[in-house]
């Protein structure tokens, strides 16, 4: 089961695909022919079906907006992943430092401070 945040982002992406198609006045049938994605899968994507394969979503995005959009989309996730990794790395370093220097970094109210 995906988190609420993931579900919200997926629904927003699916709405964006639907909106791109409509703005370009492309029918579901025409998009199906251009992308090779079944019409039923396009309808599922546009409805925000969480069970649809990511490859289907990416194929529609590529067909509607081109390679630049796919690269921008994947670049967004790379940037988010790098930020997340940096936060995890910083947290791990802080914990290692706290374990090796128990009298340092123990402030009142911190998670690592002994209760008392």
Considering the chains and any ligands shown, give keywords for the structure.
4 helices, 116 residues, mainly alpha
Structure description:
- The model has no long low-confidence stretch (mean pLDDT about 75).
- This protein has four helices and no strands.
- The chain is mainly alpha-helical.
- Helix 1 runs antiparallel to helix 4.
- The chain has a single domain (about 5-100), classed as Orthogonal Bundle (434 Repressor (Amino-terminal Domain)), CATH 1.10.260.40.
The H/E string reads: HHHH
CATH class: Mainly Alpha
| Beta content | under 5%
CATH architecture: Orthogonal Bundle
CATH fold naming: 434 Repressor (Amino-terminal Domain)
Distance between the termini: 39 Å
- What kind of oligomer do you see? single chain
Mean of residue pLDDT values? 76
List the helices and strands and how they pair.
Layout: H1 4-23, H2 28-35, H3 39-46, H4 54-100
């Amino acid at each position: 089961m995906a988190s609420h945040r993931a579900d919200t982002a997926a629904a927003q992406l699916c709405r964006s695909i639907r909106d791109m198609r409509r703005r370009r006045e492309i029918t579901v049938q025409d998009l199906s022919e251009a992308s090779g994605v079944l019409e039923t899968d396009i309808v599922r994507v546009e409805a925000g079906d969480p069970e649809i394969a990511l490859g289907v979503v990416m194929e529609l995005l590529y067909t509607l907006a081109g390679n630049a959009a796919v690269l921008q989309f994947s670049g967004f996730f790379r940037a988010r992943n790098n930020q997340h990794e940096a936060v995890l790395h910083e947290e791990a370093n802080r914990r290692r430092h706290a374990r090796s220097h128990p009298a340092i970094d123990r402030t009142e109210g911190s998670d690592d401070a002994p209760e008392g």
